[in-house]
Amino acid sequence: MIRNARNQIGYLLCCALLGAVIAGVVWVFLKLMGAGIQLLWHTLPGRLDFPGYTLALCLLGGLILGLYKGRAGNYPEGLDQVIGKVKGEKFYPYDKTLTVCLCALLPLLFGGSIGPEAGLTGVIAGLCYWAGDHMRALRGQLTKFPEISISAALGVIFGAPLFGLAVPLEEPSDADRETVLPKAAKLVSNVTAVLAAFGTFWALNQVFGGPLGLPRIQAPDITLTERLWGGPLALVGVGCGYLFLAFERLTHRGFSSLQAACPLVVSTTLGGLILGVFGTVLPLTMFSGEEQMAELGETCLDFAPWVLILTGVAKLFLTNVCIQSGWRGGHFFPVIFCGVSIGYGVAMLSGLNEAFCLGVITAALLGVILRKPVAVTLLLLLCFPVRVIPWLILAAYLGSLVPLGKLGKAPQQTET
To answer: Which of 184, 208, 232 is the last residue of a domain?
Structure first.
């Protein structure tokens, strides 16, 4: 019994160490991303004073990305693909981990309207399988650590530990099987790794500085008027979710045809051109969106409501353009920004509580796209006050239950 207890403690310590290492990898990646963005988008423009800088840099980014991916491969894979391989195939290739890391970093540096989660989870899953294959002490945990690592990575990236636990849980390993709740031992392992990762990431930020994550949105009292508008606002979010999926289908069809007829560099350069045009006219449509959300919270009154709504809708389109053209990455952060931007516009037009509008619209939008209401609620939990949470739950479930028809069959990324 004593030996078994020691083995359990040793295993949990390994989980904690795994979480700490993952936090370090994520922190380094995000620091490199932040430093690159600072150089390309703040330092250089101040010295060059070139009016067409945004368009020129996006075109250059598309060209570099296409030339590199033409040789290395069209990486990274989407988050659902990574989780599906880890849970279904019990393996994720690690022979091109550095390539995947660079392919994930480049579009973020050049202003892509995507998030870092897809590339980072692929890199971390690959590293776990590499460790299992090359370190004798870890071979027995090979099937456990990759799933644990995904939870830890997502919890750190989004600054939401519970979200990291929920996403793999709500991701079935087979499309025809229902999600199965994990056993207690597995849940304890995941929690240990996530908490260690979150604590390590927080400590690194305190010592060296780092990304702040999603902003906190405050709200005054919610009145009966807001409650009566809960249903219509959720329907606005559902409509935006349908729009995202329609854009996904449209851009997939267009760019898959282009990539079948031309080299990948043509597709990525066209994606850069579209990104540069949108970024010149509507600058907030660029980048992943978390910093732009904080900016909106301070400056939303400087914009007309229709500009905020148009910005959100444009980013729904632009995110799909980036992903399908070869500027691959995640869509969590951009979609949250879209819901927030549209929510501010609707709040200004209707006179309703801003936080209520933002929360309900964003939760319903994410519910339609992700089909994971628990994960959506836990992701937004840290952004909104407690009094909005019941409406987040209802809106997320409504979004996840609406029928998608043909829109639900559209692939997330163009395959090459």
So the answer is: 208
Rg, Å, the chain Cα set: 21
User: Residue 350 sits in which domain range?
Assistant: 224-409
| CA–CA gap between residue 131 and residue 127 (Å, rounded) | 6
Contacts 24+ apart (CB under 8 A), 198-201: 198/19, 198/23, 198/155, 198/156, 198/159, 198/161, 199/23, 200/19, 200/20, 200/23, 200/24, 201/23, 201/26, 201/27, 201/156
- Say if 47 falls within a structural domain: yes
Same domain, residue pair 124 and 21? yes
pLDDT, tens only, 128-179: 877 666 555 555 555 567 777 888 888 888 877 777 777 666 554 444 444 4
Amino acid in the structure at residue 239: G
Tell me the angle at which helices 290-299 and 332-350 cross, rounded to the nearest 10 degrees. Answer: 20
Q: Among the residues of 158-229, which ranges form H helices?
A: 161-169, 184-208, 224-228
Q: What are the angstrom distances between the C-alpha of 100 and each of 9, 74, 247?
A: 34, 9, 26
